[in-house]
# Entry
Amino acid sequence: MKVLLVGGGGREHALAWKLARSPRLGALIAAPGNPGIAAHAECVAVKDTAVEDLVALARREQPDLIVVGPERPLALGLADRMRAAGFAVFGPSAAAARIESSKAFAKDLMARHGIPTARFGAFTEPGAARAYCRDLGAPLVVKADGLAAGKGAIVCATLGEADRAVALCLEQRGFGEAGRTVLIEEFLHGEEVSFFVLSDGAAVLPLIAAQDHKAVFDDDRGPNTGGMGAYSPTPVFDAAIEERTMAQIVRPVVTALAKEGCPYQGVLFVQLMITAAGPCVVEFNCRFGDPECEAILPRLDQDLLPLLEAVAAGRGLPTAPTWRPESSVCVVLASGGYPGAYETGVPIAGVDEAGRLPGVTVFHAGTAIKDGALVTAGGRVLGVQAFGADIRAAVAQAYAAVERISFRGMHFRKDIGRRAIGRR
# Structure
């Protein structure tokens, strides 16, 4: 098969790395790709948001399957345009991708169909938003309605912080168009989990869970990022919680989307809070998580390509996939200043050395080649993934690999996997 992979981040490198291991793969093309993806695919300099250019590329290359990695092209309708042009696509329509591109849409859908989630209100006017903050009381969460690269959720410990978060979104336009509407949500207490399922529009197939680390600093301090690390499996998400999540959340939301005329065809990322009352939806995403993808795909103990092909074909899903029993950890190495302003073009050393350690894979997220050398090109630069017999061993191996990599300003969390270790 010839596959076109859309995207150029760490998630797409993990997808390319796994797809390249398929005996059914004939050729892999990535748009735009990155230096890590280039080891597995032909990279073409077409932006992942350039919908018409991507359609033209597909018409030229005639891939058997198109895999769309990031959320933004899905929200822009890339999957719709590709399907209209006659291609098989792994990724939901723009209408179904509203499950991520509009948090207000997702919340209203959950409210209509009785899917457990936090109490919320949606607002475009600052005064009304602040009044609802006082109705809920602190702590609470202020969220930009649209896509904000994982940084649009602000946890507010006090009403003063909530007022400033409302001002940032609605008055200062800190998230641009994504923040024209804000959601004010009840703060949920519990442990957060990222759970992934496949849907072909009707049937659903559970994959696996991971736990992300959103805050930029250790002990979950500082602003939210796109994710500073992840691990799998997650002890809090046992078989009973999984079945409850499938019964109360996943199957109802997939059924609801189909009933409302936008069947979901792709991977559904269910961000959960495991509360004392059971699993509760924090939000949905319309793609694999990043860096969760870099932690979970190495654990998949079978060919990924037939799974993605089955979803795209919409003719039923295979049986439950098999997973390696070891623990997998991914530590993100970020540019100095991230998630704020950061420098790019900084030389990176030690990636090959780190990747030679047993059980270690280094995924490229924000890198480029300049004058023949690997340099930084984003906020999140690399994801260092490692296996271990248990979570402690995987963490130790991941950080041993991290020690071999360096670039000016590099920072990373030193407590990835801490909740799982604390449970042991």
Observations:
- The chain has four domains: 2-91, 119-186, 191-313, 327-423.
- The first strand starts at residue 2 and ends at 7.
